[in-house]
Amino acid sequence: MTALRPTKTVRILGTHGVPAAYGGFETAVENISLFLVRHGWRVIVYCQVKGSGAIAEDVWNGIERVLVPVDADGWKGTAKFDLISIRHACRYRDLCLTFGYNTAVLNVLQRMRGIPNVINMDGIEWSRARWGPVKQAILYANERIGCFVGNHLIADHPEIEKHLLTRAPKRKITTLTYGAHPVIDPPCAPVQRLGLDPGEYFTLIARPIQENSILEMIQGFSQTRRGKRLVVLGRLTPESDPYHREVISAASKEVMFMGAIYDKETVQSLRYHSLAYLHGHTVGGTNPSLVEALAASNPVIAHDNHYNRWVAQNAALYFNGADRFADAVRQIMSSPSLREEMKGASRRRFEQEFTWDHVAGQYEQLLLKFVDPHART
Fold first, then answer.
1. Start and end residues for every CATH 3.40.50.2000 domain found in the chain
2. pLDDT-derived band of residue 333, with 50, 70 and 90 as boundaries?
């Protein structure tokens, strides 16, 4: 007798795929997919690979992968990958879960063929000035299209849900956050290899752009001698970027620019053993880096906005401008009891809202609403 495949099937589109090697979306897809496989789902993830030729398929940790070769970079490569992936998915009747709306115009294909498609609508990407007016207009149009053609929309933050309510009815929107794995007592060796002592530095991990408040934080930290280091992770290109030059010029000798570090163990150790995690993001929804800081029980100094306040709550001190940031640094450095209180608040907030079992379980409950229980794949 031939065994039937699981009747619960989902095809996941819109990211570089698994295993995660890029950003928050890929990490989410990896963890949600592994959870669903453990709970009896058939999960097919579309993965973008460099090159040309025919689509290939394999299996990674129980997840079926559709490997789509793409020989273009940037937005052109993304659009080509999405088009090939969507056309392939449309050969079947399976539920689709799409991360991002950058090419939502292509999701019209699923809509026309009656294939259910749940779309994670990411942040308000078109509002980011760094894209420039042409790309902003493209993103704005695709956000509108995604809200129309998606059978259901996922917001990653209550503020994003409020925004989507201006484009779609409430019954069509669900708020589901990102998750993280708890970080418990990682080794000190990766920190020491970088010339640092545990508990003697602050950590800042972010793309060095204006909307992430890098300049304000470095100006505030560098107002006076701290006796601690500020470790900045992120790729700076001062030879071509005036903002990066301004950031470097504002830094005192206690600021260490370490470039981009992708080794997971090193990043986890840096976070866990730091005095506090610095988070200057001003736009977007639930930021994965902030969630990971909570998972590492970090005290947090965060830019004061609705997004960060909902995520970190009383695990953070909040700033707006270099002087307020400098005040928060002084508070963290001068009060061991405050640091311990904030560490406990971080862990409680993480366990309340951001564990992967909790987040992926919510995804499963939503997807179940769109699965045909009689389908065979």
1. 9-179+356-368, 189-353
2. very high
